[in-house]
Amino acid sequence: MSKDLRLDILNKLDSDGSISDTSATFKDVSIESIIGALKSLEIQEKVGYKTLTAEMWSIEPEGKDQLENGSYEARIFHAVPAGDRGIAIDELKAKYGNIANLGQGKGLRNKWLKKDGNNIVRLVDGVVDQTKLDLEIVNKTSTHPSKDVLKDLKRRNLIKSNKVLSYAVHKGANFSTELKKQSTDLTVEMLHSGEWKTAEFKKFNFDSMGVSPNGGHLHPLMKVRSELRQIFFEMGFEEMPTNDFVESSFWNFDALFVPQQHPARELQDTFFLNDPAMAQSLPDFWESVKDVHEVGGYGSIGYRCKWSEEEAKRLVLRTHTTAVSSHVLNKLAQEPYRPAKYFSIDRVYRNEATDATHLAEFHQVEGVIADKNMSLGSLINFLDVFFRKMGLKNLRFKPAYNPYTEPSMEIFCWHEGFGKWIEIGNSGIFRPEMLRPLGLEEGVQVAGFGLSLERPTTIIYGINDIRKLVGHKVDLGMVTTKAACRLDKMMGKESA
Ligand code: PHE
Prior knowledge:
By secondary structure, the protein is an alpha+beta fold. The chain has three domains: 1-59 and 155-210, 2-Layer Sandwich (Ribosomal Protein S8, Chain: A, domain 1), CATH 3.30.1370; 72-128, Arc Repressor Mutant, subunit A (Orthogonal Bundle), CATH 1.10.10; 221-245 and 319-495, 2-Layer Sandwich (BirA Bifunctional Protein, domain 2), CATH 3.30.930. It has helices spanning 5-16, 22-25, 31-43, 61-69, 72-79, 89-96, 98-109, 130-141, 147-155, 188-193, 220-234, 249-252, 286-294, 309-313, 322-334, 376-389, 432-438, 454-460, 476-481, 487-490; strands spanning 18-19, 47-59, 87-88, 113-116, 119-122, 159-171, 238-239, 246-248, 315-317, 340-349, 361-372, 395-402, 405-415, 420-430, 444-452. The model has no long low-confidence stretch (mean pLDDT 92).
């Protein structure tokens, strides 16, 4: 035997002309190795082969007992003393138990024994234990020349059959006992050197599945994002520029009428920047913001607290994309009035301990609608249409609190797969205390809503720990194997 089974096969063919049954020639070689070697040789047309299936018989535990100790019928025959009286059936039973029944039945059928009243007596002087002899043959050859014997032994649970694969191998068109390394390609070097004249080429395998392409996969979050963008575009929204991850507290909080004493503005909730720590300046309308905080206006009494310019200049990693909305609404206010719809989907940062459902950074999906005569009813109606496009048909709203919206509503939806109401977003009508200082004229209302991108993504892709989706524990293979996303088909259903 050599190291390469293929060489063994070729040498055997060379000496014997053919291999009639690989299971006989290569007894201790696994069937996987044999088929591997044959396939490789077949591609090079060194061999051809036919698949054989053989039935191999092995001895069962009861058969083993009879092979070693004699068949039940022989054992019972020998237990019956010669002579007219024989032995009482009850005595046989008491001594041999179950073997007595089986052995006696077979002995009667063989006409070795007969019943005489309550006794069993011998009909012959001696017997040949054919069952034992047959079992010996099966034990040695894994089969038996007589099909009937095999059938009978199998019926008696003494042997069982196993199907065994093997191959009959013959020489192929390119037969030789040499294994040349086959070239997969005709190269320039081969043409120059003339090697192409003698080289052996590997045959193309047109049945091969090929290598699956390894590029162009979107991360599940980005799959869901592109679906959501599509819904926004369908509904006439413009995308907001979200490329500034650092904002001043002014845009992230103050312009949104978030009081300077608000707990969200503490270090444990917000990432503040060290270097640079402060914005160089505030936009020119900063005094209107200061006023509305300190003394109010537009029907509001404000927070009646001192408002600090320094505090407003502190730089933060934006904690919500509503900071972007405040910029965009301020720009909108510089133009002559027009109704507008804006959205954004991007990262925000919160100084939170991470666990299965929280990350220090996540994506917010945000929409704002500016129009005259907007009411809470218009917002509810809009949300109904929007979430329906995501496949969520059943919404409920719960009064909530945001410093910048009044009224505010948490959005719940019925999840078919989970069989319960789940919180999916937050929404509200922006306060005049926010809108007027930004420059929006009276009579223009702005409704807004936000949700996390991670929530629908984990629901759709059945991911139970958000850290499997983002961060250093991410299995990159997941990016290539997760299905394409159709929000309307996948939300609200339990997913794989
Ligand atoms: N910014 C809010 C949040 O962080 C979402 C929101 C956006 C709420 C717009 C109302 C209006 O959850």
